[in-house]
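Many introductory courses stop at the sequence. We go one step further.
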Amino acid sequence: MKTGTPPRVDGRSLDYSKMIVQPGDLVPEKFSYTDTPVLKNQRECHMTHTSALVHDLLREGFDRSPMFNGRIKSIGPRYCPSIEDKINRFADKESHQIFVEPEGWDTVEVYVNGFSTSLPEDVQYKALKSVVGFENVKFFRPGYAIEYDYFPPTQLRHTLETKVIENLYFAGQINGTTGYEEAASQGLMAGINAHLKINQLPPFTLQRDEAYIGVLIDDLITKGTEEPYRMFTSRAEYRTLLRQDNADIRLTPKSFAIGLAKEDRMRKMEEKERKSDAFINFFKSTSFSPEDINPILDSVSSAPVKQADKMYKVFSRPKVTMEHMLQLDEVSAFVKANQLSREVMEQTEIQVKYSGYIEKERNNADKLQRLENIKIPEGFDYSKLKSLSFEAREKLQSIKPVTISQASRISGVSPSDISVLLVFMGR
């Protein structure tokens, strides 16, 4: 497969006044649930665009590009194409976005996102100088592409141990993925499972409804991949359950159980869960009066109410936010008395507003989980099940799924094939 990278340039040589400012988040989130200080200062990114002139200059180097002269034949990431790929595949587009990203506080190095390329250095330099704001650009390093070998990941178990060689674990690009996060998450899971196996402890796996890591690994080992795999949220059928606000509640108990999360972190998560549950129950059990709620409803053009009802009901309305509910004395008094954090209030609001969707998705996941519990014996001989389609027999024999649920996700295995397996397993 192929992956690539853009040039790194000297930020002091760029004219940011000609670019569009891309500010950071108004409320920057943290990368962990520890007591990380709240981020006060953020570095801005900037945006500029290529042009027809830039595209013409890049095309001049196509005959020397390993992508076009046959030296690189591999498949690159579908959703992170190189700049030459973009102008070749989308010839009707006169410009493409370029995001100018500083690499840190203590460096002048800038990452030119959107300009990944394997063209010769002189072509890269000439074309980039024609981008608005880059007229005096100085390079630290040109962009480049690399090819890498991978092993078809259908040869792996859910633990990322290879089926062929016991105690050998694969993680990262060797499994056909691309991206830092994809590699890191696999490394974490392979490391955990290698440790558990050495200590003769049960393996640790995550299901598709428990974590994006679970989706990524299940996709790789069940379906394989013929292009560099990236973990997009759209690949997860239960993404309403896999939210940022509940990541700590989903995963901290699992982490604590295998000795990764410390006890203080576990207790902190439990406190957050307890407080958000209590706040939800407060909304379910506390009533509002029409004279208090109607001015708030009027301010968001929502229909007024004629009689008192539970707060939960009015809070469920699309335009009514936590900010509006805090205008009610009982709500603000509850928040103050219980010292509720922003995270607890966010968790509560999501649980109230999307409870119907979350419950429906949880029910769907539970149905699938029942199939996940039906194990297929190791070394099972599919050739004796003549009712299976030829393709299903071939795929099942090759991939050797561990459960009926995994078997149902293999391309080419139909619902009727799953019915045959269920009958054979006595279900």
